[in-house]
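#struct-queue
[09:14] JT: dropping the first one here, sequence first, then the C-alpha cells:
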Amino acid sequence: MLSVRDRVQKQAKPKGFWSGMTHRAASGLIAGVLLAGTGLGTAAQAEEKVITAVMHSGLRVVDPVITTAHIVRNHAYMIYDVLVAVDENFKPQPQMASWEISPDKKVYTFTLRDGLLFHDGAPVTAADAAASLKRWGQKDSGGQLIFDVTESLEAKDDKTLVWTLKEPYAPLIDTIAKQSALPPFIMPASVAATPVDTSITSFIGSGPFKFVEAEYQPGVSVTYEKFKEYVPRSEPASWMAGGKVVNVDKVKWVTMPDSQTSINALLSGEIDYMEQVPVDLLPILEGSDEVVAEVRDPLGYQTMGRMNFLYPPFDNVKVRKAALMALSQQEVLGTLIGNPDYYKVCGAVFGCGTPLADETGAETLINGGDIEGAKKALAESGYDGTPVILMQPTDVPTISAQPIVAAQALRNAGFNVDMQPMDWQTLVTRRASQSKPSEGGWNLFFTNWGVPEINTPLINPMLNGRGNDAWFGWPTDPELEALRKDFIKAETPEEQLAVAKLIQAHALDVVNYIPLGQYLSPQARSTKLVDMIPSPVPVFWNVKKED
C-alpha cells in the first residue's frame, strides 16, 4: 500500500503543485462526549438526512458584509444566493439573473429569473438586489471601485435591475461574480437597509438552505435546513454557479477546537466532514476505507501578516520594513504546515501560479529573512519600544503558528511584542476596532486568503488604500489607488501584468502587508458523502449522503 506522501505526490504531479489523497484514522470517544452536548447522533437525526460538519471555526458573526471571515462567507453561501456566480473555469455565469450590456458598455441590465423566493415566502425583486448591491459596495474593495463610476443603480420593475455607469468598467461582471471575499449576497431590501457598520439582525435568505435561528448557538453549533421552495437552475452545479440542488434535510456545523477529536469523530461516524485537517495528522487517516482526505483547491491559500497603519509603531513605514525583514517564509510555513509537499515559498502578493505572479520586493521573505538587517533598520527607524499588540488565535490550526513564529522573529530584531491569545471569532471582532492598541485595539494579526481571492488588484482586499474605507489596518495610499485604476484601464494582459508588477513592488516597498507563502489545507469526509463539489469554498448543495 502506498504511503500518504507517496499517494499525494503521485496524484499531485500532473497538476504541478498540489494534490488529493485517501487515508485512515482511529476511534472517537472524546468526540462522542462533545457531540452528546450538541444533540447530535439522536434517533431524530437518523430519520433525516443530516450532514454533520466540523468547520475551521465556530460561527459568531452572521453578517457577510461587515466581515471577510471565511466562516461567515461560508455561512452566507448556505442561506443567500447571488446574481452572477463564477464556475469552475473562473467564468461568470447567470445565477439569479441574466444580463445584457449596452453597446457603449455603460448600462448593464439584469433580469431576474422566475421562481426566486426569500425564506419567508416573499418574491425576490430587483429592488432587493439593488439594496443588497449598494450595501455590499460600501465595504467590498472591488465594489468600491465600481461605485466610483456608478451613475445609478435602480429597479426598473420587479424583475429588471439597471446599473448605469459614468464610464465603462470592464471588470464589473467578474467583480460581482467573485466567490470571495465579500460576494454580493442578495438579501431583502429591508435587511440591506441596515447601516454598513451595524450587523444585520434578520436572517431571511434567498438561497438553498434556511438558517435555523432557534438552534443557533454562537461559536458552538449552527443548523441549516433545506429550503424546499428554492428553485435551482437547470444547469449542473459548478463551484458557485449552476443548479444548487440540496439532497439532504439538514446540515449542522459543530465546533471542535481540537483536531484530533474531530478526526476521531469522523472515523467513528459521529461527524461526516472536517473542513481542515492539519497536515501532521494526515497519517492517522492512512488506509481507512471509510474516510477520504483530499485537497479542494490546487492553488491553496496565501498566509500573511497585516499591520495597523493608524497607530505607532506601524504608522512608520521604516518600522514596517524592519518587521518585514525580520520574517522568513520558510520558518513560518515549516512551523505551520511542516510537510513541504503542502507548502510553497512565494513572495507574490497575487499568489504563485497565477497570471499576475511576481516576487519583486520579497527577497528577504523568500530567502530566510534578515535579522541583522532588521535590527539595523529598526534602530534607524526611531522605534522607541512601543509595544506591538499581536493578536494570537488559539483555536484554528491554520492561523495559530504564524503569531508564535513572528513574535520570536520580531523580538530577535528588537521589537517589544505583546502577544495576546484569543479565539478566532474574538480576533475577527477585535480587528474591526480602530481603538488605540492600549485601549482594546491592535497592531498586528495574521490571516489567510484563498489564492482565487487575491489574484488581481481589483479583488484583493489587502490592496486597498482608501484609509477608513480600506480593509482592517486602514492604509491611506493614493499611489496604490492610482495604480489600481491604471490596472482597470489596461487593455491587454501584457499591460495588466506590467501594472500588476508595479503594484507588487509598491505594496512590498510600503509594506501594505507581509505575504508569507502558500499552503494547502486538506479536508476529510466520510465516504458516505458523494458528489461533493471540489470548490475552494466548501458548499453543501449537490452532495448526497448515502446510507
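[09:21] JT: and here's the second one, same format:
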Amino acid sequence: MSDQSLQARARLAGLITSWRGTDGKVHRVSADSLRSLLRVLEGGRALPVPASLPALVVGQVGVATPLPPFAVLGAADDTVPFRLVFESGETFSGRAAVSADGRVELPAVKQVGYHTLEIGSGRTTLAMAPPSCRTVRERAGNGGGRAWGIAAQIYGLRAPGDGGIGHFGALANLARQAGAAGADALAVSPVHAMFAARPDQYSPYSPSSRLFLNTLLADACCWFQPHDVVLSMRRQGIAETALKQLEDAPLIDWPRAAALRLQILRGLYDDHVRALPPAEMTAFVRAQGRALHQHAVFEALHAHQLQRGPRGGNWRIWPTALRNPDSPEVARFAEERQHEVGFHLFLQWLAARGLGEAGRAAQEAGMKIGLIADLAVGTDPSGSQCWMRQDEFLIGASVGAPPDPLGPIGQNWGLTTFSPGGMHAHGYRAFIETLRATFARQGGVRIDHVMGLERLWIIPDGGAPTDGAYLCFPRQDLMRLVALESWRHDAIVIGEDLGTVSAEYRRHAERRAIMGMNVLWFQRDPSGDFMPAARWDRNAAAMTSTHDLPTVSGWWLGTDIGWRKALRQLPKGARVEDALAARDHDRAALWAVLHTGGEPGPMPPVTEEGARIVVDAAARFIGMTPSPLAILPLEDVLGLIEQPNLPGTVTGHPNWQRRYPGGRDLALLSRPEAAHRLGLLRDGRRAT
C-alpha cells in the first residue's frame, strides 16, 4: 500500500497523522502505527460509505438539520416529504429541501428530545438537543451564580461498622452535613462498577462498566436493620473485631476489606433475599432490563474463569462461546448459576438504593445542585461493558497521552474508549447509555478528560505510548447529546479540561455551557504569575485542587516534591534543589495573590501551622472568583497534607487508599477548622 493511500485511509478513519507536541515540534505518526490502528478502527476492512440514514441523527432545536447522504425516494420539486413522531406522541408532517447534489435538509424543529423521523423510504431517530447544558444559575435559582460545594472520595469516608471502606450511607451523612453548612453541591469520586472478583483493581477510574455501580460502596443498612447485619455476621462466624481491625488501619486494605464486605452482603442475600427477592428489587431489575442481567452474568462468569488462573480475568481469551454474551453457552451458564447471577443483581439494587438515598439526603438538606457524579474517561477493555458492546468500543487499543515533559515516554492508561464507527453504526447507543447511567440521580456530572469529546490519543495493544496517534470524535454530535441528557436530567456539566486543550474546543464548550475547571495551581498569566481572583474564567468551576494534585497544605509544605523525588518522578534533567527553589518563589507569589485587594500579612512559615493559614486564605480566595461554582476538596476543608492519588504511580504511593480522619466524631464538617474554612468560602462567595 502506498504512503498516500495509507494516509488517506487514516484520515477517513479519523486519525490525525501529525501533531504538535508540547515541545513545539511537529511529530508524524509512523506508517506502522497507522497500520496497527487502522486494523482496530476498520476491523480488517475498509470503512464503508454510508448508503442509508444512520440509526441516529443529532440536531439542535431551532436550527435546520442537514441529513447525511442517503438514497432519496419520493422527491419532487426539490423537496421530499417527511413525518416526525415526537416523544410526546404528537406528529408533524412537512417537506424537506433537497439540494442539487441530493442532500436533504430538515427545517428547524422546536421540541427537545428523541423523536422518530420518517423520510422518503428511510426511518431514523432524530435527537434534538437544546442549545446548551443546564447552567448553575438555572439549577440553583436566584443567586445561583455564586454556588459552592465540596468534593469527596467516597471510599475514604467513615461510618460505624463500615469494615474499612466508605459507602453510600457515609456519603448520605456527609451530604446532610454539607447541606446544613449551606453547600449547594457535593462532587464525588466515580462510582462505576468494578470487578467483584478482582478487588486489587480499585482505582475508580479503571472500571469494568460505566453503566452500573461499584457494589463495594453498597451500604447494607440502607435496606437491612443493624441487628440483621449482626445476626448474619454471627451465623457466618465473622467477629466484629475483624471489622474494627480494618476500620482502624491507616490505609484501606482493599483485598481484605472487599472480601469481608462481600461476605457480609452474601450472607444477607442468602438469609433474606435469595428465596424471595423484595418487590422493590424485582422492579429495579425489570426496569434495568437486559443490560443489567448481562452485567450480572459477566460478574459470575468472570469469577468462574478466574478460578482457572489470572488469564481468566480477560474475556477476550475465554473459550470462544463465552466471549459472546448472546451465545447459548452463556445462557446455559446463567441458568445453571442463577443464584450467583441473582447475588450480583441484588448488589446492584442495594448500591443503587444507597446512592439514591444519598442524593435525596442532599436535596432534603437544601442543596440546590446536589451530588455531582464523575464520569471516567474510559473503561477496562476486559470488563463487562466492552464484553456487552464489543462493536461499540475500540477493542485492541488503549487511550493515553503522547510524550510531554512530565511523561517523556508518554502515558498508556490501560483503558479503551468508544469506537467512532461503532457509535455511528449503533446510533450512539453505548455513549447515550453511559451518559444516562452517570446523570441518573445526580444534579451534575464531571466528565473526566473532556477533550475526549473532540479527540483522544489511542495506542494499539502491544505498542508503546509513542506508537499512538490522535483519533478524532464527532464533537458536535457528542456535545449536543451531552446537552440533551443534561437538559433531560436537569443537571449541570463540568469538563475536566486540564492540560493541552484546543482553542476551538473551548469555544464550543463555552457555547454549550460545559464548564471547565479553574484549579488554583494552574491559574497563571503568560509570565507565570498567579492570577487574581477577578481574572478567573467565568465558564469554569473554581477549585483549590483535585484528587490528582497536591492539597494546599501538601503544596505549601512541598510534600508533593518529596514524593516525586522519592519515586524518581521529577522531569528529566530536573534537580530537586531547583524544584524546591521554584516552590519558594511560588509560595511568595501565591501568598501575595491570595490577598488581592488587601495588604497581605507576613508570609506564613513552611510549617503545618503556616499551611493551615494558607488553606484558610485559599478557601476564601476561590469563593471570590467569578466562577459560577466554587468547589473545595474535603482534603482542603480538613487541612490534610496528603493527596488521594499521585499520577504515574502504581506502587510506592498509596493511591486511592487514604481515609478521612476517624474516631467517634463523624461530623467532619462541624470540626472547628472545617467549619471555619467553609465559613471563609461562604464569605468569599458573598464578597463579590
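[09:30] RK: nice, looked through the second one.
[09:31] RK: Residues 279-306 form the longest helix (28 residues).
[09:31] JT: good to know. The longest strand covers residues 91-98.
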